[in-house]
Design brief:
The strands form two sheets. Strands 8-7-6-9-10-11-12 form a seven-stranded parallel beta sheet, with helices on both faces. A five-stranded parallel beta sheet has the order 2-1-3-4-5, with helices on both faces. It is globular, with a radius of gyration of 21 Å. With about 350 residues, it is of the alpha/beta class. It has two domains: about 120 residues, Rossmann fold (3-Layer(aba) Sandwich); about 190 residues, NAD(P)-binding Rossmann-like Domain (Rossmann fold). It is built from twelve helices and twelve strands. This is 2-hydroxyacid dehydrogenase. InterPro entries: D-isomer_2_OHA_DH_cat_dom, D-isomer_DH_CS, D-isomer_DH_CS1, D-isomer_DH_NAD-bd, D-LDH-like, NAD(P)-bd_dom_sf. GO terms for molecular function: D-lactate dehydrogenase (NAD+) activity; NAD binding. Keywords: NAD, Oxidoreductase. Belongs to the D-isomer specific 2-hydroxyacid dehydrogenase family.
């Protein structure tokens, strides 16, 4: 099967080319992101592979269908960038990678917690400049603190387990409770307002669906403890960025660590060091000394990239052979806010 891979980097190509020796598909790698303008580049292919910052809206899908595309393979877990209803109407099957390395994302979230708490980013730069003073670097013991986990699928569960290992009290919120979460020490499920009010650290690990869009907004931030630490390694639009900025200015948010940003599409995964960044909101976020931003790299481990390549190519092979896939994403009239498996 000939597959057009959009939005690819060198690391994508190396992992997919190596793994493809087991599948023998014809892989056609493209640098541009997928959208209505670039969709015609898939002409002559039967399938398209896209990434988290590509766009498969109705217009894009119609162009793909007109060029004979029958399969849309997502090499990521999220699928909010796909118009599933239109895909179903056009007869395009959508598959994804529901889980690659949940440890990668969970461990990165913990890394952000440690970096913010112990001011590691400041300490590193100070020592590089021969400044060995400790003023402004004071942190706090994680032991005994309360950590709120919003979304307790595989990633949220692993994050909770790690934080429990630090000696933290763990609170969870999820419309679809995970039995394994309640088995973590003294971890317990609570309603969202209770989690917001009692957590010293809050980490987001839920998918982006209509019910979770801006789940952390001005009202939610108002319910939090003064000086709370907020971590988001899941989806950018879970967090209302402007509300977060107001929370930072007021002191309600004492620390913010994000690996995702709601308007990241034209920023992340690119080298813009020679450009003028026109996103004023993002520039303002970068200016705060208590904010750490990484560019959607939480997933970026050898283990995760290998798993993504394995699952994606297996999804394509199963489709080619007419076999059902447990990773197919089907359109539903109502989508339940469920944490990623």
């Amino acid at each position: 099967m000939k597959v057009a891979f959009f939005n690819t980097k060198k690391y994508d190509r190396s992992f997919f080319e190596l793994t493809n020796s087991k599948h023998n598909h014809e892989l056609f790698f493209l640098e541009p992101k997928l959208d209505a303008v670039t969709a015609p580049l898939a002409e002559g292919c039967q399938a398209v592979c896209m990434f988290v910052n590509d766009k498969a809206d109705a217009q894009t899908l119609e162009i793909l269908a007109a060029h004979g595309i029958r399969l849309l393979a997502l090499r990521c877990a999220g699928f909010n960038m796909v118009d599933l209803k239109r895909a179903a109407e056009l007869g395009i099957t959508v598959v994804r990678v529901p889980a690659y390395s949940p440890y990668a994302v969970a461990e990165h979230a913990v890394g952000l917690v440690l970096m913010l708490n112990r001011k590691l980013y400041r300490a590193y730069n100070r020592v590089r400049g021969d400044d060995f003073s400790l003023d402004g670097l004071m942190g706090f013991d994680l032991h005994g603190r309360t950590v709120g986990v919003i979304g307790t699928g595989k990633i949220g569960l692993i994050f909770a387990q790690i934080m429990h290992g630090f000696g933290c009290q763990v609170l969870g919120y999820d419309p679809m409770p995970n039995p394994s979460f309640a088995a973590i020490g003294a971890a317990r499920y609570v309603e969202l307002p209770e989690l917001l009010e009692n957590s010293d650290i809050i980490s987001l690990h839920c998918p982006l669906v209509p019910a979770t869009h801006h789940i952390i907004d001005a009202e939610a931030i108002d319910q939090m403890k003064p000086g709370v630490m907020l971590i988001n390694t899941s989806r950018g639009a879970l967090l209302d960025t402007k509300a977060a900025i107001s929370g930072i200015k007021s002191g309600k948010i004492g620390y913010l660590g994000i690996d995702v940003y709601e308007d990241e599409d034209n920023i992340f995964f690119e080298n813009l060091s020679d450009s003028v960044l026109l996103d004023d909101t993002f520039q303002l976020l970068q200016s705060f000394s208590n904010v750490v931003i990484t560019a959607h790299q939480a997933f970026f481990t050898k283990d995760a990239l290998q798993s993504i390549a394995d699952t994606t190519l297996t999804n394509i092979t199963q489709f080619e052979r007419g076999l059902p896939s447990q990773n197919e994403v089907k359109y539903q009239e109502k989508v339940i806010a469920k944490s990623p498996a």
